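Field log, afternoon session.

UNIT: design team B
ACTIVITY: writing a sequence onto a fixed backbone
BACKBONE:
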């Protein structure tokens, strides 16, 4: 996929993989607008992800998330950090595939460590009844094939400055 100024760059990966942190830095470096789809959900809906999930369930959130991605995808030249489960819906995968998709990989132990340090249950509610580590492993088993199928590049889990440098080098290939 050729990267133009109009091409949206989507960061995908599990919760706590660093999509928002890297996305902000990448957007700043590239001089592009940044959007965090989870933050956009809160701004548009006026409620947290956890509140909607508690009231209506995960399916309702996934539909709302799809609407936000659809609106975001109409814009051009963004760097967008997605929610970890955005890849679950086929229509979302089709929208993401129209941009450049970067998969932020991370080991389950590292994800658990990050989530324990910053639980943020309002924006990162539990996905299952499993314990945190088991949930991460199960979720990755389900989603990683989808992440890999969409990814134009896979970014290794490194400190953010190293990830930014790696990402900028990877973008030059496009």
């Amino acid at each position: 996929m050729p990267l133009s100024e109009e091409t949206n760059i989507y960061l995908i990966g599990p919760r706590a993989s660093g999509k928002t942190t890297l996305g902000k830095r990448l957007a700043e470096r590239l001089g592009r607008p940044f959007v965090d789809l989870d933050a956009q959900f809160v701004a548009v809906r006026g409620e947290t992800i956890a509140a909607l999930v508690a009231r209506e369930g995960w399916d309702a959130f996934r539909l709302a998330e799809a609407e936000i991605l659809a609106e975001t995808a109409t814009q051009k030249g963004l760097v967008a950090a997605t929610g970890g489960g955005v890849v679950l819906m086929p229509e979302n995968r089709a929208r993401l595939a129209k941009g450049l998709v970067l998969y932020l990989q991370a080991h389950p132990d590292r994800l658990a460590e990050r989530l324990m340090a910053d639980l943020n249950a309002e924006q990162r509610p539990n996905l299952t009844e499993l314990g945190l580590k088991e949930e991460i492993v199960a979720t990755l088993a389900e989603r990683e094939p989808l992440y890999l199928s969409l990814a134009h590049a896979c970014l290794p889990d490194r400190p953010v400055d190293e990830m930014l440098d790696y990402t900028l080098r990877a973008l030059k290939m496009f």
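LOG NOTE: The beta strands are 9-12, 34-36, 79-81, 100-104, 153-155.
NEXT ACTIVITY: expression trials, pending approval
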